[in-house]
Design brief:
heterodimer, A: mainly alpha, B: 4-stranded antiparallel beta sheet, 11 helices, 29% strand
Chain lengths: 279, 305
């Protein structure tokens, strides 16, 4: 494993991907803080002194759920995709490094990169917010702590999906397209699920002849097992409003779901790469 | 003679398509073993299986005595370098970094030999230039340098001179001969350019439709190859009927070239040419090439089947 891991990390540092990740992380922290700062100033200029008190930083951190997966989709194509597209994976296999080791080492480096992006972006967000907001005090409540931790976990889950996609996809372009679509599709799907769940079970109507109030069953109503699945997904998705209960961010369900995704996609990826015949 | 690579009854099928049928081969240590076959004959599949890129449907192979069924085969592969089809290099890395990465893949900690390796393949002056900006010939040579990392016992090279210009072909040939001579590296090589292969190989295996037709050393090939007299004439077409009438075995090579396989005296040839109204421009001795031998072999097999 150590040969595969050393090789993967050497490539991470020598191909310029490390530098690019570093630059992106610093810029992301600054841009997200700047973007949210301008939004807050526009909507409520008087909230400025209390920006660090929760809302502002939480809002900026929440944007990481959208930004980091997109960056990691591109990163995984550049990193793992190059291994396959340049057929350099053949060199590793023919030197006796097992396919499982190759897969896991690529995954470890990619998750390291996603952790690095999250960490530096968050430091950036806090730093820039402090510089802009000045007279503020930070109150670390459960929501803020949850939103600090969650991007690491969620990004790791997306990274596991992307690495798996790289090994399944027939080309870098296809892998990039698929990877870039995963997060928006999931985000849209959770929004649609949320809307479906809000459908009322019955509709009230007024009988015009008798003037009595009656109830009609809603044919669109989602019930039974489907409702349970929808609820489970929405409680586990950071892209749905359900993760906020009474204004507080619930970390447990998204964390468990992300862990399951990492394990499931890694297992599927390893199983496939062991049987795959590389060109 | 000790064999570095032994292949026993190897079969490979994709669905109903049988790519390899009971292929058995022994590659002697220190040899340059030429694998000769048409497109789709199974050369690349055979090489991909041996290098671990594909799994055989049945059969085994052993590298330096370690069987493919043995878990130690992974460590045995460290003593092997391979290029299948085109060189596997990171185009966003320099030649030095590509080689260093392969050193790391092999678990080597000292990188002192890299400049020597770059010198061997004449890429020592490329500096930090990315491999993506290299010419095809340079990429092939870099690929060769990568597979030479760790001084392997055997090289598996699938079409290493594909697409190269004549100078590039000569460069690769010189490098291969040098490493075979100086490092005693065994080389299993396939190429469509049979004339070039004949300048390198010490042994041959002829493969057709996934089966080995014949294996032989280059000395045996020389002995078996038929000799002929090559005639340059003003018109092949006019001379043919006269040669046919006399029962002389021949083959038309072009409009003005005929190969004569029967033993015929020059005086008789001149008389026959006069009779046909043809002028003989030159006569030379001609050995049947590797290509000719292979084509005859395939034709014989097709005739039998």
């Amino acid at each position: 494993m150590s040969r595969a891991l050393k090789s993967a990390f050497y490539r991470f540092f020598s191909t310029g991907l490390f530098a690019k990740t570093l630059i992106f992380s610093v810029l992301a922290g600054f841009i997200l803080a700047f973007y949210y700062n301008s939004q807050i100033n526009y909507s409520d200029p008087f909230s400025r002194p209390r920006l660090l008190d929760g809302g502002f930083v939480c809002g900026s951190l929440f944007l990481l759920f959208f930004v980091v997966p997109v960056f990691m989709a591109v990163f995984c194509v550049s990193f793992t995709g190059s291994d396959i597209a340049f057929r350099a994976i053949n060199n590793k296999i023919s030197t006796g490094i097992s396919r499982t080791q190759i897969y896991l080492s690529d995954l470890i480096v990619s998750i390291t990169a996603s952790t690095m992006v999250c960490l530096l972006s968050e430091i950036g967000i806090f730093l820039w917010t402090y510089l802009w907001a000045r007279r503020v005090s930070v109150r670390f409540n459960s929501t803020l702590i949850g939103l600090i931790i969650a991007p690491f976990i969620v990004s790791a889950a997306f990274t596991a999906i992307y690495v798996c996609t790289e090994f399944f996809a027939s080309s870098k372009v296809l892998a990039l397209i698929l990877s870039l679509l995963i997060m928006p599709c999931f985000s849209i799907a959770t929004t649609l699920m949320s809307t479906d769940l809000e459908e009322p079970y019955k509709f009230q109507y007024v009988n015009e002849e008798t003037n009595e109030i009656g109830w009609n069953l809603n044919p669109k109503y989602v019930g039974g097992t489907k409702r349970e699945i929808y609820t489970l997904v929405l409680n586990s998705s950071v892209y749905s409003g359900e993760v906020f209960e009474n204004g507080e961010f619930k970390l447990t369900a998204p964390a468990i779901a992300s862990g399951v995704v990492v394990v499931a996609f890694t297992a599927a990826g390893v199983a496939s790469v062991r049987k795959k015949e590389f060109l | 003679m000790e064999n570095v690579l032994s292949i026993k009854n190897l079969c490979k099928s994709y669905g109903k398509a049988h790519i390899l049928n009971n292929v058995s081969l022994d590659i002697p240590k220190g040899s340059i073993f030429g694998l000769v076959g048409r497109n789709g004959a199974g050369k690349t599949t055979l090489m991909r299986i041996v290098t671990g890129l594909a799994e055989p449907t049945s059969g085994t192979y052993s590298i330096s005595g370690i069987s493919s069924d043995d878990k130690k085969i992974l460590s045995a592969r460290r003593r092997m370098g391979s290029i299948t089809d085109s060189p596997a290099i990171y185009r966003n890395l320099s030649a030095y970094d590509n080689i260093k990465l392969q050193y790391i893949n092999l678990g080597m900690t000292s990188f002192d030999d890299i400049p020597e390796l770059l010198e061997l393949v004449e890429l020592h002056d490329t500096g930090n230039k990315k491999a993506g900006k290299f010419s095809l010939g340079m990429r092939q040579r870099l690929g060769l340098a990568i597979v030479l990392c760790g001084n392997p016992d055997i090289l598996i090279l699938d079409e290493p001179i594909n697409g190269l210009d004549p100078q590039g072909i000569i460069q690769i040939r010189e490098i291969l001969l040098k490493i075979n001579r100086e490092r005693h590296t065994t080389i299993l090589i396939s190429s469509h350019i049979l004339e070039e292969l004949s300048k390198l190989a010490t042994h041959y295996a002829f493969i057709e439709k996934g089966a080995i037709l014949q294996t032989m050393s280059s000395a045996e090939l020389m002995a078996k190859a038929r000799k002929s007299s090559r005639l340059k004439v003003t018109s092949s077409d006019q001379l043919c009927p006269v040669l046919d009438r006399e029962g002389i075995e021949f083959k038309i090579d072009s409009q003005d070239t005929i190969d004569i396989f029967s033993e015929v005296r020059i005086k008789q040839l001149v008389t026959l040419a006069d009779e046909a109204g043809v002028e003989i421009l030159s006569i030379s001795e001609n050995n049947e090439s590797l290509e000719g031998y292979f084509m005859n072999l395939v034709a014989q097999k097709d005739g039998i089947s």
